[in-house]
User: Fold this.
Amino acid sequence: MQGQGAIDLSKLGALVRSYRESRDIPLREAAKEVGLSPSTLSRVERGSAVPDLGTVERLMAWVGQPVASVVTVPPPRASRHPRGSSDTPAQSADTLATLEIQLRADPNLENDDAKALLDMFKSAYLHLVKRHRSGAKEDR
Assistant:
C-alpha cells in the first residue's frame, strides 16, 4: 500500500500509539486485543510496518475511527492529460486501490456491498480507460 500512497503510515502509527497510551495499555496487551504480534504492533506505531488492508481495518476498528482517516488522497491534477496521452496502468491501479479503501471504510456499506460497487466501478472504469486509449491512438 505504501507504494500506492494510499495509507499514511505515520498517521496510522501515531493514532494507534495515542489510543493505546490514552488507555494506559501495555504494548503486549494491545497487540493481543488487536490480534497482532507485539513486534508488528510496535512497527506499526513507529510507522515502519506496511500492513495489509485487513490489518489496517482491524487497527482502525480497535481505535474506533474510520479507515478513511488515515487515507491520503493525492491532490487533484491541475489539468487532464492532453488528447493523445493517457494514464499509465500504475495510475489506474492507484485509482482503483484508493476507491477500494474508501468503499471499505464507508460505514454505510456492508463488505459485500462495497465489493459489489467496486466490481461495477472497476468494470466501467477499465472500459472507459480502454476506450480513451484506443481513441487516443486513432487521433495520432
